[in-house]
Write a structure and sequence with these properties.
The structure is a homodimer. Chain A is an alpha+beta fold. Chain A has 2 domains: 16-51; 53-122 and 129-201, Nucleoside Triphosphate Pyrophosphohydrolase. Chain A is 22% helix and 42% strand. Chain A has helices at residues 95-107, 159-167, 174-188, 194-201, and strands at 16-25, 29-37, 43-51, 53-60, 66-73, 80-83, 86-90, 109-121, 130-141, 153-158. In chain A, the strands form 3 sheets. In chain A, strands 7-4-9-8 form a 4-stranded mixed sheet, sandwiched between helices. In chain A, helix 2 crosses helix 3 and helix 3 (174-188) crosses helix 4 (194-201). Chain A is globular, with a radius of gyration of 19 Å. Chains A and B meet through strand 2, strand 3, strand 5, strand 6 and strand 8 of A and strand 2, strand 3, strand 5, strand 6 and strand 8 of B.
Chain lengths: 202, 202
C-alpha cells in the first residue's frame, strides 16, 4: 500500500457533540439530531444519518470484456436505474462474503477471483454510508435469487458501451460510475491481464 | 450526447406509496417513513431521506497538472478528510453558480473554464442525494471565504499523487475518488489539451 503523503496531516480541532437526540430508527438507518460545536468554535445543529449496512458494488467482468448490469426501479429516485450488482452488507460481516452473496442473488454469477479495488464514503455531509467495490472475474453462472422486494432485469454489455452510457448521463448511480472508471484506470495502467484490458478498451 | 442504448428499456412496475409519515425536517434534509409496495408486489417499510441541496464537486486543475485539495474534519465521519472542493448547491439555483461560489469560498480560486464532467446519484437505497462534478481550468487566485463552520486546510498536489493516494485508501470521499478517475479518463481519451494531459499522467 502506498504510504500516506506528508501533506495529509490532520490539523485543527474535530467537531464536538453537546447534545444528541435520537429521532428515528429502522432496520437500515437511524437519524440523530445533534447540538454540536464546529471546528471553528461556532455552535451548529446537525442531523446525521447512520447506516447499518455497508454499500457494496461488484463489477462482474467477463473474459470477453463485457460487464453484467442490473436494472431496477429504486425507491428514493424517480425513473429506472441501470447499475452494477450492488447491495448492503451488514456491519460485522466480512464485506467480501456479502459481495459474493449479492453477485449470486442479483446477477446469478459466481466469480473465481475477487479484488477489492475501491474503498469509499458516499456522503461527507449527512450520512456515514461507506463501502467497498470489488472486481469479480473468472465468472460462471448460478441460479439468481433476488430478494422479495427486487424485480431485476439483467444486461450483458461491452465494457466500453457501459462506460460511455454512464458518462453520457444514462447511468447516474455513483457506485457504478466510479467502478467503471476504476476498471478503465486498471485496464490502462496494466493492472489487468493484457488480453482482457484490450477487450475492454476496444 | 450519446443516445441511450436499446437495452436500457424500463420494464416492470415502479414502487407504490401506500402511506407517508413525515418524521424529521431541518434546513438540509427531511426524513419520511413510507408504507410502500415493491415492484414485486410485496409490502415494504421505507425510510427515505430527501436532500435540499445538490452535491457539487469541483476539480481545480492547474496548468502544471496539479490539483487543489481541501482538508477538514467532517461531522458524520471519524477522522480527517482530504477532498476536492465540494459543497451544497440549493435546489433551484444553477449548480454551476453554486460550484463557482464553492471554489472561491473554499479554495480561493476562480476558473476561466468550466466543464460538467460527471452527473450522479450518491445513494440508491436511502437518500435522493444527487449532484454534478465540474472540471475547472484556467485558475487564478482570489481571497478564500470559508463559511462559519468550516476550518479548512489547502494542498496543491500533483494529479498523479492525489489519484494514487485516493486509490491507496487515503482519500475515501467518493466524489473525490470519482472525479479524479474521471479526469484520468479524460486525460487518457484525448479530452484534455495534450500538454495538460501529459503533465497529469507523468
Amino acid at each position: 500500500m502506498t504510504a500516506k503523503p506528508p501533506w495529509m496531516i490532520a490539523p485543527g480541532t474535530p467537531w464536538k457533540v453537546v447534545e444528541a437526540r435520537e429521532v428515528y430508527d429502522n432496520p437500515w438507518i437511524s437519524l440523530t439530531e445533534y447540538d454540536a460545536i464546529a471546528p471553528t468554535g461556532r455552535p451548529a445543529l446537525y442531523g446525521a444519518v447512520r447506516f447499518k449496512n455497508l454499500a457494496l458494488a461488484i463489477l462482474p467482468l467477463h473474459d470477453d470484456g463485457a460487464v453484467t448490469l442490473v436494472g431496477q426501479h429504486r425507491f428514493p429516485i424517480p425513473g429506472y436505474s441501470w447499475e452494477l450488482p450492488e447491495g448492503g452488507g451488514p456491519l460485522g460481516v466480512d464485506p467480501l462474503e456479502s459481495a459474493r452473496r449479492e453477485l449470486r442473488e442479483e446477477a446469478g454469477l459466481e466469480a473465481a477471483d475477487w479484488r477489492e479495488v475501491l474503498r469509499f464514503q458516499l456522503s461527507n455531509s449527512i450520512t456515514d454510508e461507506r463501502g467497498y467495490g470489488y472486481l469479480a472475474t473468472g465468472l460462471s453462472p448460478v441460479a439468481a435469487e433476488p430478494d422479495e422486494t427486487e424485480a431485476l432485469a439483467l444486461a450483458r454489455v461491452p465494457f466500453r458501451q457501459a462506460l460511455d452510457a454512464a458518462l453520457a448521463g444514462h447511468i447516474l448511480d455513483m457506485l457504478t460510475l466510479a467502478m467503471l472508471l476504476r476498471a478503465y484506470h486498471m485496464a490502462r495502467e496494466g493492472a489487468l491481464p493484457s488480453a482482457l484490458a484490450k477487450a475492454m478498451l476496444n
